[in-house]
Amino acid sequence: MEKNVIGVYGLICSGKSSFSKMLAKEMNALYIDADLIGHEALINNKENIVKEFSSDILDENNNIDRKKLGAIVFTNSKKLRKLEELNYPYIENKVKELIDSTDKDVVIEAALIMRSKIRFMCSSLIYVNSKTSDIINRMKKTRNISELEARKRLKMQRDVKNNKLNADILINNMKDYNNLIMISKKLGRHYGVKSKPKHRRKRLFYK
Hints:
The chain has helices at residues 16-27, 34-44, 46-53, 66-73, 77-100, 132-143, 147-155, 158-162, 177-190; strands spanning 5-10, 30-33, 106-109, 124-129, 169-172, 204-206. The protein is an alpha/beta fold and 207 residues long. α9 (177-190) links the parallel β5 (169-172) and β6.
């Protein structure tokens, strides 16, 4: 039986990480964090990244400082695209290897999935929607940045929000944590044995 490969995306701090892990647990699926693989890509592509962005992005141990790099790319769309060009091939290949390595269903958390080839590996896409005010508050708390900086980062992800209707399923993370758990349980059943595989194109909404 063909397995489900589900891509979960959404704006930064929208709750997609919590939801992806919940859904993977409900489905007993392999959970893949594309952002974490992106951290590996920084190590793998260090030489090319330093060549592109200069040694100013290195820390005292001569490793890439993600905060320094982030300060550059999150304020310049061209530089962000260049970083993506350098890192995405590694991320895409690693994700494909992980998908191919298991017979289980797969849940991939990838905020920028629509910018990469990962979306073509998925049989279903889920967009996690959240209030802008909630997102900004989470960013300020978890990333220790100002509201102005938070809004700048959101601005750089406008295409993510614009692509939400390309998802097969839209969920609203606008209530409490327990509501997100309930949604993950519903979708766990939706992607259950009797209904697999779920292929697009009928869009579903969960609140």
